[in-house]
Amino acid sequence: CFMDILIGFDISTHVPGQLLFHGHPQLKSYLPGILEDITSIRGVSCGAGAEMQVSVAFKVNNDQEFPATFQIYQETIFKSLLQVTVKGSTHLNAQFLQSLWDTFEDKSASQGQVLLIFSDGVGEESITMLENQSDRLRE
Predict the structure, then answer these.
(1) Which InterPro entries match (predicted)?
(2) What are phi and psi of 28, to 5 degrees?
(3) What is the strand order of the sheet 112-119 is part of?
(4) CB 92 within 8 A of CB 119
(5) Which domains does the chain have, with CATH numbers?
(6) Within 13 A of 17's CA, how many CA atoms are on the CB side?
């Protein structure tokens, strides 16, 4: 069985040309371990003798310099993320959630699909609006 995990970054303080992890040393420090943990999920029921295969993709605000392509995680992917520059800030709102979800467009609904968002907080949109958008995406 398969699980696709899309990892998005909502950082409202970014300016064009900054590195993805600029000003976020804890995210830079903890993310490799988090990625190792989520991609080595064990004990999930996939059927008789089947193991879970986890693929990850990263959605970065950067003009496709780093395309959101699902693949088995390797440390080299994180090292590539360290060099990514962004085209500006992002904001955790309904449009942002939809753009993340659209990445799953070509993927089979029979595969598990997970959004993991690292955010520096909710901006102008209310929590209720984000919950409503999240509910719509699950349909």
Answers:
(1) vWFA_dom_sf
(2) -60, -40
(3) 53-59, 2-10, 112-119
(4) yes
(5) 2-138 (3.40.50)
(6) 0
CA distance 14 to 27: 14
Q: Is 6 helix (H, G, I), strand (E, B) or coil?
A: strand
Q: Where are the alpha helices (DSSP H) in the chain?
A: 25-39, 75-81, 94-101, 127-138
What's the whole-model pTM score? Answer: 0.85
CA-based torsion, 14, 19, 21, 22: positive or negative: negative
For the stretch 74-126, pLDDT in tens is: 999 999 999 999 999 888 888 888 888 888 887 766 678 889 999 887 766 67
> Two tokens at 19?
């590195």
Give helix 127-138 / helix 94-101 axis angle, nearest 10°.
20
